[in-house]
């Protein structure tokens, strides 16, 4: 799988609910559930599904309201975040492993990230990971957590979070790109470039944003190399320093 952003993945989950939610017991949805994770089927309970659907329907207006904010006031943003937090808590009580519960928690974490409440965003993402979700959700939570840690100037921890995903097949491009972002943030364009090149080699399609990141890393690497060379040329050599000392004596 090769999804560009967390937003696209969350939107895909939410869109599937809009299309298939009312037909939760249909054969069509059973196929989708298998794709998302077999535990959805083993834990299948129509009563729980109905409660999840109803609660999720309460969340969607706030998510849509958030997406339409153009020049929001902090009070408006906080009000929406608080409402989503309340409903995500209620969804967690109903079924913490449900795909829609996870998608709402991911959205909540993203909202907190956007208003720079990084500690709170981290806690929400940790809640998702602690629930031992299916692979797709685990990848989304950990890549999002790495962004949060990066903003908190915890780049080592950001890389450690991503390291847990190294053995997961199908997400190599996404994870490599995220590692590249962290290395660039850490001031290491050489490793950043290497990760972006790896991401390109693993990607299933051409990605203009990834290409821009790679070109930027190459430019930064060349600039760093040029600056290093320039400094070495202007610094006096050890022999020059010795000559100056001898001439003074």
Provide structural commentary:
This protein has 249 residues and is mainly alpha-helical. The chain is built from 13 helices and no strands. It has helices spanning 6-20, 27-36, 39-42, 46-67, 74-95, 99-114, 118-130, 135-151, 155-163, 172-185, 189-202, 208-234, 238-248.
Cα gyration radius (Å): 24 Å
The coarse overall form would be globular
The computed structural class is mainly alpha
Overall helicity: over 70%
Distance between the termini: 71 Å
The whole-number mean of residue pLDDT values reads 80
Helices and strands, in N-to-C order? HHHHHHHHHHHHH
Biggest sheet statistics = none
Poorly predicted tracts of residues:
22-35, 231-239, 241-245
Number of helices: 13
Which strand-content bin applies to the residues? under 5%
**Strands, count:** 0
Structure described in brief:
This protein is mainly alpha-helical and 249 residues long.
Can you lay out the helices and strands and say which pair or pack?
Elements: H1 6-20, H2 27-36, H3 39-42, H4 46-67, H5 74-95, H6 99-114, H7 118-130, H8 135-151, H9 155-163, H10 172-185, H11 189-202, H12 208-234, H13 238-248
Helix pairs in contact: 1-6, 4-5, 4-6, 5-6, 6-7, 6-8, 7-8, 8-9, 8-10, 9-10, 10-11, 11-12
Observed structural traits:
249 residues; mainly alpha; 13 helices; globular
